[in-house]
């Protein structure tokens, strides 16, 4: 397993990382500031592997070949399908922590073999490219993997076991999202699929714009091309919660990540996750986690 705490310095170094990653896998956890990587013109299909990436305290842009861009901030994670081609940019002037786990081909091939051998459902094959919010168990597993990377520990068997568990968990979560789409009330399957796509657009909007103090239901509904009333119904069917509740959870996820992985003050964190009133942020944080932000900071120390 490759363990990286800094970005490759040159395109040649990046190509070496790509080549090794498909065979061995990779865990990267390091500070980024201003790095940019264009889509490799000499891309080799043998480099293709699935990944999951997330950051704290900054913003990363992934521009996909012929399929738009996704911005990753301090909430949610971006899963990358095997073979996804993209240009990368670390935005802003301040350094921030970026994390990525890339799965070796033997892990993804094993998932596909399990389907062929009848040991898994046909849906459980490949990771999709999607900005999403993982559950607490997956978040804890991802954080444990990158924490060990930063510590310099090099137990390949441990990384292989944890990465295999993580990939299986991400696939299971993906399958659960697909199953949830069937709960949408629609006569035609095509209509149900379109409404599910719009609900995903609403999720993506929240995950990318949660830091805007004025972000409201009307803004999210406009992005999803639904009325606010219709969005609430469809979103709840797919996500099991309302857009407003999902936004609160995303903001609290981001706040905890920033507390643990940056040196921002609680006031700066409140502003970064969309609260213009620091008192309102403190109340929301205590209600969500059962402790004040200062207590979480003491745990970090």
From TrEMBL:
Recorded GO molecular functions are:
DNA-binding transcription factor activity; sequence-specific DNA binding
| SMART domains registered for this protein in UniProt | HTH_ARAC
Q: Which UniProt keywords apply?
A: DNA-binding, Transcription, Transcription regulation
| Record PROSITE patterns | HTH_ARAC_FAMILY_2 (PS01124)
Q: Could you tell me which InterPro entries the record lists for this protein?
A: AraC_XylS_family_regulators, Homeodomain-like_sf, HTH_AraC
> Which parts of the sequence belong to the HTH araC/xylS-type domain?
200-299
Q: Does the keyword DNA-binding apply?
A: yes
Q: Is ATP-binding among the key words of this record?
A: no
| UniProt name for this protein | HTH araC/xylS-type domain-containing protein
The organism named in the record is Hyphococcus luteus
């Amino acid at each position: 397993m490759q363990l990286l705490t800094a970005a490759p310095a040159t395109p040649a170094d990046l190509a070496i990382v790509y080549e090794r990653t498909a065979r061995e896998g990779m865990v990267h956890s390091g500070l980024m500031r201003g790095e940019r990587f264009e889509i490799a013109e000499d891309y080799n299909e043998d480099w293709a592997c699935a990944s999951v990436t997330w950051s704290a305290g900054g913003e990363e842009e992934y521009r996909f070949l012929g399929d738009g861009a996704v911005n990753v901030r301090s909430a949610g994670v971006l899963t990358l399908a095997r073979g996804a081609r993209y240009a990368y940019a670390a935005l802003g002037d301040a350094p921030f922590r970026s994390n990525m786990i890339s799965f070796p081909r033997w892990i993804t091939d094993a998932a596909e073999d399990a389907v062929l051998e009848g040991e898994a459902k046909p849906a459980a094959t490949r990771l999709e490219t999607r900005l999403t919010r993982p559950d607490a168990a997956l978040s804890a597993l991802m954080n444990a993997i990158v924490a060990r990377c930063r510590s310099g520990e090099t137990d390949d068997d441990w990384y292989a076991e944890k990465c295999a568990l993580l990939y299986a968990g991400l696939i299971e979560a993906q399958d659960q999202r697909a199953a949830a789409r069937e709960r949408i009330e629609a006569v035609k399957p095509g209509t149900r699929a379109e409404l599910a796509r719009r609900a995903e657009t609403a999720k993506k909007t929240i995950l990318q714009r949660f830091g805007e103090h004025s972000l409201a239901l009307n803004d999210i509904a406009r992005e999803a091309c639904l009325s606010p009333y219709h969005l609430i119904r469809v979103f709840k069917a797919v996500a099991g919660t309302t857009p407003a509740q999902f936004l609160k959870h995303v903001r609290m996820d981001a706040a905890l990540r920033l507390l643990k992985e940056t040196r921002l003050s609680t006031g700066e964190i409140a502003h970064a996750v969309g609260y213009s009133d620091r008192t309102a942020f403190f109340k929301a944080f205590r209600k969500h986690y059962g402790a004040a932000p200062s207590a979480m900071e003491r745990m970090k120390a």
